[in-house]
Specification:
The protein is mainly α and about 400 residues long. It contains 19 helices and no strands. The longest helix is centred in the middle third of the chain and has 25 residues. The two termini are about 50 Å apart.
Length: about 400
């Protein structure tokens, strides 16, 4: 959809030259986190976690061994590529359950069954490595910052200002980690070292050849500095750079200033924030005059005791098109911006649950009806009215009796 050559965004912008692409904030955050896969150690670690989770899920016997060892604790979750929240939960659960996973793999590796035991031994060797443990701790420290924000950005009531504040807080936190990377990684490395001691894993760095091809050759004798330079710092740099390119560009700044039109912000903000270089869209002097009147009107309403904590839709109804023509258009744009499309995309998951291989011949009317019933489960359906409506569809010889 966002391809520069044949995507829907490029197609629309070829006709509407001033149109801005406003992606889902949660999807953009998820894509920025995916930049962690550009680090080889992180990419290998994520692939190993997927293999371990699949190893237990593909066999009820192996899954029972892990379930018994977990003893009621959270079960492992598959790493979903599209759902950022599931990715956060999967990695964090895997980190907290690592000791139990190693115990389960050790027990399975002693089986007489050749396939399970050999695969378990291979996974156990890969999991019990210094690079994987440090990669897992480094990735978890990052996901702890973005986990709650990812859930909040999917909420129904999130708006542009809230999304902008969340991204600003995340960037501030990550930049603080990058600035104090020595102290941050020292604490992280200490936790990883304690876990490796419990699992009897040797603390060492990979063998460095004279001609390094597959990975960077960091000239350091310290094991802690090696992993800090090869994993932790590149991980932070990649994600911070990608977040800034997505959320701190000129177009996103223009979109993020729209919430300043809301009454609770306009009475405190400076009207100089709204400037348009292209005079063909909105005249700068006309907009400035409207903003001053808009601010004065809400200050007066606040002094009269009226509520000023209202959303864009409520403001549109209170905005006179004659007095504030440009502000009314901007409020309409703000009300239509999709900060999150998570709720709409959940309908795709609903269809996958409804129309299965056993129901492949389901008609369109029945599919739409079942989908609506499933999506809007919280709505109470009056059964008596439905029966009455169904009975009037055609003449029947028998009466419906409850």
């Amino acid at each position: 959809m966002t391809s520069n050559l044949k995507g829907a965004v490029q197609k629309i912008q070829s006709y509407a030259l001033n149109a801005f692409h406003c992606p889902c904030s949660n999807h953009a955050l998820n894509l920025s986190i995916s930049r962690s896969s550009s680090i080889q150690a992180i990419r290998n670690g994520i692939g190993l976690m997927k293999e371990v989770v699949a190893f237990f899920n593909l066999s009820s016997k192996r899954n029972y061994v892990l379930k018994t060892i977990l003893n009621g604790k959270q079960r492992l979750k598959s790493l979903c590529e599209t759902r950022g929240v599931d990715r956060h939960d999967s990695v964090l659960i895997f980190k907290s359950s690592l000791n139990y996973i190693v115990e389960a793999l050790t027990k399975i590796s002693d089986w007489n069954e050749q396939d399970s035991s050999s695969k378990a031994k291979t996974l156990l060797t890969a999991v019990c490595s210094c690079e994987f443990i440090i990669s897992l701790h480094s990735l978890s420290s990052l996901l702890c910052v973005t986990a709650s924000a990812s859930k909040l950005l999917q909420s129904v009531n999130s708006d542009i200002s809230q999304a902008a504040d969340i991204i600003t807080d995340i960037l501030s936190n990550l930049e603080n980690k990058r600035k104090n990377c020595n102290e941050e990684f020292k604490s992280l490395f200490r936790d990883a070292e304690i876990q490796m001691t419990k699992l009897d894993i040797e603390l060492k760095k990979p063998r460095i050849a004279s001609k390094q091809i597959s990975r960077s050759n960091y000239q350091t004798t310290s094991i802690e500095n090696y992993y800090k330079l090869s994993i932790y710092i590149p991980l932070l740099d990649n994600i911070i750079t990608d977040l800034k390119s997505r959320f701190l560009n000129e177009k996103y700044h223009a979109i993020s200033t729209l919430p300043l039109l809301l009454p609770r912000f306009i009475i405190k903000s400076d009207t100089e924030h709204f400037t348009f270089e292209d005079s063909n869209i909105i005249d700068a002097l006309e907009l400035k005059t409207e903003l001053q009147l808009w601010k004065s009107s809400w200050i007066r309403k606040k002094n009269e005791g009226e509520c000023i904590d209202c959303d864009a839709i409520k403001c549109i109804s209170d905005c006179s098109e004659i007095v504030f023509p440009n502000i009314k258009k901007l409020l309409g744009i703000m009300a239509c911006l999709p900060i999150s499309v998570a709720s709409a995309e959940r309908s795709f998951s609903t269809l996958r649950r409804l129309k299965t291989w056993l129901r492949s011949k389901m008609g369109q009317d029945r599919l739409c009806g079942l989908a609506l019933l499933h999506i809007y489960q919280e709505i109470n359906i009056p059964v008596d009215e439905i029966i009455e409506r169904f009975s009037r569809m055609k003449n029947r010889k028998l009466d419906f009796v409850l």
